[in-house]
Amino acid sequence: MYKYTEEIPFGPLPYFRTEEFSEIVLECSERLKRLAGAPENAHVYLLTSSGTGAMEAVAAGCFSKDDNLLVVDGGGFGHRFSEIAEHHGIPHECVDIEFGQTLTPEMLDAAASGNDFTGMLVNLHETTNGRLYDKDLLASFCKTHGLYLVIDVIASFLADPLDFENDGVDALIISSQKALALPPGLSIVILSDRLYKKIIEKDIKPFSMYFDFRVAEADAVRGQTSFTPAIGTVIALRERLERLETEGGADAATARTKDLAEDFRFRIEELIEKGALELPAHPLSNACTPIIFPNGNAKEVYTNLAHKHGVWLNPNGGELADKVLRVGHLGNLSINDNALLARLLTEILT
Amino acid sequence: MYKYTEEIPFGPLPYFRTEEFSEIVLECSERLKRLAGAPENAHVYLLTSSGTGAMEAVAAGCFSKDDNLLVVDGGGFGHRFSEIAEHHGIPHECVDIEFGQTLTPEMLDAAASGNDFTGMLVNLHETTNGRLYDKDLLASFCKTHGLYLVIDVIASFLADPLDFENDGVDALIISSQKALALPPGLSIVILSDRLYKKIIEKDIKPFSMYFDFRVAEADAVRGQTSFTPAIGTVIALRERLERLETEGGADAATARTKDLAEDFRFRIEELIEKGALELPAHPLSNACTPIIFPNGNAKEVYTNLAHKHGVWLNPNGGELADKVLRVGHLGNLSINDNALLARLLTEILT
User: Fold this and answer.
1) What residues of A are in contact with residue B14 (Cβ under 8 Å)?
2) A226 chain-B contacts, CB cut-off 8 A
3) Model ipTM?
4) CA gyration radius, chain A
5) Chain B nearest C-alpha distance from A132 (Å)
6) Alpha helix locations (H) across chain B?
7) Mean pLDDT in runs of 10 for chain A (350 residues)?
8) Most B-contacting residue of A188, A208, A299 (CB-CB within 10 A), to test interface
């Protein structure tokens, strides 16, 4: 295959309407399907957008006024799904879940009673509070009730187990900046063939030309994107996917993140026992540990870690701003980073 | 200001919901307004999308069924504007311009007769064929008829003269990958305050949550984007804008590109005199020289230059595929690149 090097005198990135670039896109699609456990007839689209663009592309591009969606609203990103449905006038009901609460079969059954849902929108890992939903619960509920299952895995891809085909997923939403460790700005949508066919058969009117899957499909089959893609990120994606597969695929990547998360949680056990830190009561993704500061000094600790030690955690907005900081376990991190952070937290909090 | 360095152990790019990142975004906005000649009350939005996303955001986000748009359709990107208007049911008329043809006042007047237009959509440089439109003609026509003037300058920003305020521009659409020489995937929209107010006063229903300028405005005033931006590209944008201003601003950048374009055109004069190459009859942007191969061997020359010499020109699609290659003059190019390309073309064609 053609290698893109610095030798190209006319611009640092190659022009993309070429066979060489098509090969790269097609290779990305195949590798993504393998990593996600998606069948050969699944459809892969590379969107130049934030994850929210991809969430809207799927929710408003695959469903319409004739649908009825069950939205798992357990934090900022679940709420965003409900806003998208609201914005586009798609009938929907939300299952509201509080911080610390776990999604149960009873909550889903209660929502389903009296409703004839056609699809479910859920973020497997609600990254604003670190909650991981039970994929088996989601899958079996959707199978029983005949729903299309749309899962945003932006914050859980390659961190928490999920298999597109076995878990009955119809749409998977991925972004470049989390487990794929690429710059943000590229999102990936994988659609099941049955959900793609629904768009055609139900003649869902595309809300946007930019996010029209029918247009994207015509280009995707020949390894192209309809509009100028984030070329550099796509080239880096191919390399990253190749390395992920060489290193053992999704299972191995998930295991590495799980090890890192468990190591960090072990290192802060003493702080938790002393009452200096808490963890939420809900199940946690391997991608992130939300740490609760019972004294409400989260912002202070954030500033201290960032400005004095160059360690940047993810702060929260809204009502959790003073209470919670999030420690990510994706990306180029090691147990040395865990050790450093645990030591700094101990110094600051005791 | 805080410097982003490799020292950050938790991820290679900083989290963006911070004051430090807001400062960067606000600095970009101010510098972009200065470079574009936009007044202080203009609105700057950073969109994580291809240029087409930004074209749709403006055309379908600022106009509605109650408008009537004049679309200058002189090639692939002009046609895209008309498709966007069509897609969203916005009444519009196209001025169709053939390859080689120049847009004249008479053509605009003919379109205006019997129509009560509210806005014009135009790509200052129609990059599929290198045509540059006369900015003074566009500006005076829009002023005379009271139209909002929307200009896509993706392929002409910092290459051809244009001044937002003096030329009466209401919306400017810019992308990261051309004169700004950044990776593709970030687009910039600058709206005049009167066009922003039109959205509010006419209560234009946003076609997309992702591309809603009202949502973007609420975040932009505090230096934030509504959704995860292409963080790395935004940081690089700040640096690039600072350098552009240090090196003399828009006038100096435009002059450099003009010099490069004129140098290249001078170097191929002999090939043109011999009939081995032709230039289009329409006015050309400084950003690009479309070279016509009278023998229809454009594809052959493209492959030869690319695979034998590592020189990548931009091929055309559609009916111009065999006839035209485009030589870009933006980016990290010098007269040495011009000399090399002119020499190779001479070798291949004579």
Assistant:
1) 312
2) 52
3) 0.88
4) 21
5) 21
6) 19-36, 51-62, 76-87, 105-112, 135-145, 193-201, 213-220, 231-246, 249-267, 269-273, 298-303, 309, 335-349
7) 28 70 95 98 96 97 98 96 98 96 97 95 96 98 98 96 98 91 91 98 97 95 89 90 95 96 97 96 97 94 90 85 93 90 95
8) A208
